[in-house]
């Protein structure tokens, strides 16, 4: 087996769209740890998605520190998460939560996003706030057999983004 060089891999990749198309957005709207935001930003770049984050004083620094690509990425700054989610739904965007809930779609059964989709990621400890659950069109669950209640938000978001982008 021959390992391909970085140059060969880059030559085979699809060209990125010239601007944000907004077709797929990861939305960790209630973050607890800045390192997770940098990881999600990297995943968004990998799958051609955008990242929606709240306007909190520490978030910009966390994204700058976590952006190991050293290039600008598509970031949407959100003032009021609930208002923003409601606006997305009004615009016809599918709003999908990553949460443990009845009637959730298992990650393995999640289809590729065929229309603009926001993947809402909850707080690392408390999940998606109850008042935001009514704004979701659906919920995806990541099955686990370990003792933890959930995955790290960056890991969970990355898994869901890869499925929605059609890469997994």
TrEMBL record:
Keyword Transferase included in the entry's annotation? yes
Q: What InterPro entries does the record tag this protein with?
A: Alpha/beta_knot_MTases (IPR029028), rRNA_Methyltransferase (IPR051259), SpoU_MeTrfase (IPR001537), tRNA_m1G_MTases_N (IPR029026)
Query: Mind telling me which residue stretches traverse the membrane in this protein?
Result: 21-41
Q: Name one GO molecular function term.
A: RNA methyltransferase activity
Q: What processes in GO biological process is this protein linked to?
A: methylation; RNA processing
Instruction: Pinpoint the tRNA/rRNA methyltransferase SpoU type domain residues.
Output: 36-162
The yes or no answer to whether the keyword Membrane is present is yes
Tell me which UniProt keywords the record has, alphabetically. Membrane, Methyltransferase, Transferase, Transmembrane, Transmembrane helix
> Which stretches are annotated as coiled coil?
none
- Name of this protein: tRNA G18 (Ribose-2'-O)-methylase SpoU
């Amino acid at each position: 087996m021959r390992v391909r060089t970085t140059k060969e891999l880059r030559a085979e990749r699809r060209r990125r769209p010239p601007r944000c198309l907004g077709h797929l957005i990861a939305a960790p709207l209630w973050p607890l740890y800045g390192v997770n935001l940098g990881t999600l930003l990297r995943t968004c770049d990998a799958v051609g998605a955008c990242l929606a984050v709240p306007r909190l004083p520490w978030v910009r620094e966390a994204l700058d520190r976590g952006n190991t690509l050293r290039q600008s990425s598509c970031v949407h700054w959100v003032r009021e998460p609930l208002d923003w989610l409601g606006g997305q739904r009004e615009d016809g965007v599918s709003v999908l939560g990553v949460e443990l809930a009845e009637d959730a779609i298992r990650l393995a059964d999640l289809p590729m996003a065929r229309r603009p989709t926001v993947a809402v990621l909850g707080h690392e400890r408390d999940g998606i706030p109850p008042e935001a659950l009514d704004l979701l069109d659906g919920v995806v669950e990541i099955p686990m057999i370990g003792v933890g209640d959930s995955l790290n938000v960056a890991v969970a978001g990355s898994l869901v983004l890869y499925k929605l982008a059609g890469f997994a």
